[in-house]
Amino acid sequence: MFSGKIGQKNKQPLGLYEKTSASLLSSNMAKQTVLDTDGDGLRDWEEILWKTNPNNPDTDGDGYTDKEEISQGYDPLDPESNPETGKKAENQSVTREERKKIAEHLNLSEGIAKTMIAKIKDPSELTQSNPDNPFTLLDDETGQGMLGFIESFNIRLPENEIKTNNDNSKEAFQKYINERESIALSNPYPRLSEDEVFSQAITTNNFKKIDEFISFYDKAITNMKNIIAPSAFFEIHKRQTELFIATAEVYKNIKQINIDPLKTVLALQENQKIREEMMGLMIRAYEMAPEYYAQ
Q: Which of 125, 151, 177 delimits the end of a domain?
């Protein structure tokens, strides 16, 4: 599908125009990529790349949203492929792992700038695209790289990486909560506004505070994997750990602002989703054991 090695970059450095275009294009995308017209959890630009309908949350009409199917490895365009049937996506020209490899090796900002420049030079290409929407200008490799980058935040750990037991007694829950509280005290959350840290790091090019958050999350991930969670709390505990890993990846990508600004923009947008899901998990935890949290 692609020429040369997956994710292989042109060794010739980009000229000033291409670099400037990449930077400006990222700013333009920052405004466009928040749109999710049908509210299915897939932003409109993702729907373009997946070839799903941005105005229909369930493109194939099988009862599962496009986002639900994609995140679990099903085909949102095949009504027979969904969690109920168990039929995974088939005949994909590029696998999930291949997309991630492309994302790791490809500079998305450079890729989209070069693609856009090439298509502008060929007017016949632009007649099939929407110049006001950069995502309709993407070549296959850059498009797959963007999907792979977004998928890299959908962390799913093997179950054996989380410790658990079947003791769901009040004493076991209390011990679990005490351990969580002890860890929180030994590894306190940085007393900083996350949004302010993002803004200052990007504006000043000083990533010292970003490194503080990366260190915090790295320690939190290790601690979460060492705590024994009661089985009733296993899914919540596991998902919280996965979201910590995803958040650490967000911070690491912020440090790439000067190398690949588009990845930074997309990482910040993924961070909003991570925050929302983490808040939902906290609410679930409170609902499951209110008497423990009230103490």
A: 151
